[in-house]
Amino acid sequence: MIHSSVQYIKGIGPKKAELLRTEAGIETIEDLLYYVPRRYVDRTSIKSIGRLAVGEIATVIATVEKVSVEGIRRKYLDLTVNDGTGILHVVFFGGIHYLQKMFSIGDTLLFSGKVDYYKARQMVHPDFDFIDTDSRIASIHAGRIVPLYRSTEKLRAAGFDSRGFRRIIRTAIDLYAAAIVDPLEEILLKAHNLLPLKDALISIHFPESFECAEKARRRLAFNELFFLQCFFALARNKLRREEHRRKFSLRIEVLDKFVARLPFTLTDDQKKAILEITESMNHSFPMNRMLQGDVGAGKTVVAMAASLLAASRGEQTAMMAPTEILAAQHYENFSKYLDGLINVELLTGSTPKSKREEILNGCSRGEIHVLIGTHALIQPDVSFSNLGLIIIDEQHRFGVRQRALLREKGHSPDLLVMTATPIPRSLSLTLYGDLDVTIIRQKPANRLPIQTLVLPESRKVGVFNSIRKYVLQKQQVYYVLPLVDESEKVDLQSAKEAYEELCKVFPEFHIELLHGKMPQEQKDQIMSKFKYGFIDILVTTSVIEVGVDVPNATVMVVQHAERFGLSQLHQLRGRVGRGSAQSFCVLMHPDDVSHEALERLRILERTDDGFAIAEEDLKIRGSGEILGTRQHGYGDLEFSDLSRDIDLIIAARKEAQKMIETNKVIEGDGDFQQFITRFPFLQGIRSKRILEILS
């Protein structure tokens, strides 16, 4: 019944149903019930205009007395409203023509927002609702905790603003709530103090209090997390049913010779990582592991050890990196430390045709033990004699399909994905629930901590003097900005403007510009020139967030640092401090930056622990932003708050594994859609929505 079309709800019909589908993704009654409010407004107390205080957030009910467009250079819509105790001006700067048609003199509305003062008391862009004369309907719009919903201009024009959504959702609840079947057993709900599903869906839309809304959110969050963890548990079980069919066992003793020839001592974390990987590669099923380490923690050496282990039993390793210059850097390091132990080659789009043919032949015959490259590795003509290990560097830069194509070139090869982005535990369990995780926290002993300074732009002259000092000492500088071109929307100095300014300030130095809009080949050429010392100052955007090692680069200046996330700034900072000299990172901000933004930047002054910084970043910005990319859509989880739901994630993971083991899901091909069909308890957990995320 709840899977019926929304067109059958009173007041919708086929045309409006199609609009809801295209604009909001709502097709069924179930979709409508799960259309989560974007936030709530407390309308339990209405305040009179005469008692409003500047700076407070308040709700008033007033009648429109005048509708006018004001302003000379910047137009805005001004509503003059009155509730009998005073006059309030309601101001809108956007959508003027649309809003002007919406309001009429004599309309009675409810306004919720912050009270300001400009010539008179005003609210700028408040939330608003028209007041219904029907008292039953009006009761869902005022005098309670009221939900506000996402909408678009087309939806609002059709009557689906927050007020319209409240009406149809209330109708859907009244008619269909009784048909909601809870997919989870009562004993499980009690064990984790979770609401029944029907109660949760009612409370998420019409909560009696903010506490009730939070309880509802947690129940619905558990649903989607449980569903995801079921998928991961199924994926793990499926993988562990595969067999390696290895001809030989690992020869652990090869590691001793490798470690002995290293010019540095491995950290305890590196040793532990190698041990965990060795144990995984010894299993009868393929390894599926993520190596997560802070910038400069030494993940590459661990990857070398893994490839050496694979070679010890006659298997080949394919290592894929996102850029040619990063692949070349790995090739140099592997060749340097594994010379005489195994045969390493590099394959990229720039590899000459004759050399490419030589590599392809050697790889297919098994003469090449480690093939390092870019997307070139997944080309159809690249074949391996016995591919046993795949290493993906900066794995978030590759899609699922690309990893799958590489995996198909071997028979159930081990997989090691690496990331230099510290990921909070909650995010790791949600994003990578199908992976075992190895973490490297320690930094090599020879690395000096990077000195980080947070400075206002009024200190720019002093920063320039320091740049000149270090460049004259034959050291190199990164100068980073958030934009490439000038923007009318934000008052930031673009990378191109900064490049022109620095060329005037430092005419004696070699300065170049690098940004993400350049072709990859050009970016690689510039980074190569910088790496080998032909560029003194590199003006760039966050394109160098993940990049090659330039030991001679000791200074980084980030202008408009307040525009970056903490994790991104930490990644950028990691581009310096790669050598033995003391390095510096200067985070510059406007003199009038907010206190909150300044305090956020000072976190980087206090710590260089990427994991602690990532946790702070998650609290501030949320999961979708901290990743830097829309990683698999997980930033679109509807109910889960990964900054504070770690207990739910762990509980969902435990219950999902138990559920699958109890139901003996050990046969079949692991197709999740088939799994849903076989086990009805999953039907009510937004299967369609979660499958969209997983795809």
Summarize the structure.
The chain is of the alpha/beta class and 695 residues long.
Describe what you observe in this structure:
The longest helix is centred in the first third of the chain and has 31 residues. The strands form four sheets. The protein has a seven-stranded parallel β-sheet with strand order 11-12-10-13-14-9-15, with helices on both faces. Strands 16-21-20-17-19-18 form a six-stranded parallel β-sheet, sandwiched between helices. It is globular. Helix 9 packs across helix 24 and helix 12 packs across helix 13. It is α/β, with parallel strands linked by helices and 695 residues long. The protein has four domains: 110 residues, Nucleic acid-binding proteins (OB fold (Dihydrolipoamide Acetyltransferase, E2P)), CATH 2.40.50.140; 99 residues, no CATH class; 187 residues, 3-Layer(aba) Sandwich (Rossmann fold); 179 residues, P-loop containing nucleotide triphosphate hydrolases (Rossmann fold). The chain contains 26 helices and 21 strands. Helix content is 40%, strand content 17%. About 2% of the residues have low confidence. A hairpin with a 3-residue loop joins strand 5 and strand 6.
Write the layout of secondary structure elements.
Blueprint: H1 13-24, H2 29-33, E1 39-42, E2 57-70, E3 76-82, E4 87-92, H3 96-102, E5 108-117, E6 121-124, E7 127-130, H4 135-138, E8 145-148, H5 153-157, H6 162-176, H7 186-191, H8 197-205, H9 210-240, H10 254-260, H11 268-281, E9 288-293, H12 299-312, E10 316-320, H13 324-338, E11 344-347, H14 353-364, E12 370-373, E13 387-393, H15 400-407, E14 414-419, H16 425-431, E15 436-440, E16 451-456, H17 460-472, E17 476-480, H18 495-505, E18 511-514, H19 520-531, E19 537-540, E20 553-558, H20 566-573, E21 584-589, H21 595-606, H22 610-621, H23 623-626, H24 646-662, H25 672-678, H26 687-694
Parallel strand pairs: 4-6, 9-14, 9-15, 10-12, 10-13, 11-12, 13-14, 16-21, 17-19, 17-20, 18-19, 20-21
Antiparallel strand pairs: 1-8, 2-3, 2-5, 3-4, 5-6, 5-7
